[in-house]
Amino acid sequence: MSDEKRIGAHAGPSSADRMVDAFHRIDEKVDAMREHRLNDPDSLGDKIVKWALPSIAGFVGGKLFQTIWNHGISRRNMRRGRAADAPQGFLMQLLFTALSAAFGAFVSHVSNRGSEAIVDRLHRH
């Protein structure tokens, strides 16, 4: 038996065949990603609205909450005869953190739903 027959009978796919198979898998993945992008109903503008509106609302809501909190704390401190910007205790800081996180989650949820509703409405018209 010659060397060619013996090598060909026991050898698996050649490295060229494996490379071609790898390129086919990459090509299939790229095609799937292209199909996903083309079938996505949201345009770039829609995606920006869905991202930017909740981000801006979260920032503004957080700053508004902090302003209201600071105003309330300064009034409380003034009533107690302290300086308006006197440091808060640990429990007040903990309360601020918890309430701020809850308010931020609420604003995020509402603004996210609102931005999706705006985009859906734009798609219908």
From TrEMBL:
Top-level taxon: Bacteria
InterPro entries in the record: DUF4235
Protein name from the UniProt record: Membrane associated protein
Presence of the UniProt keyword Transmembrane in the record: yes
The entry's keywords: Membrane, Transmembrane, Transmembrane helix
Source organism: Bifidobacterium stellenboschense
Sequence intervals crossing the membrane: 90-110
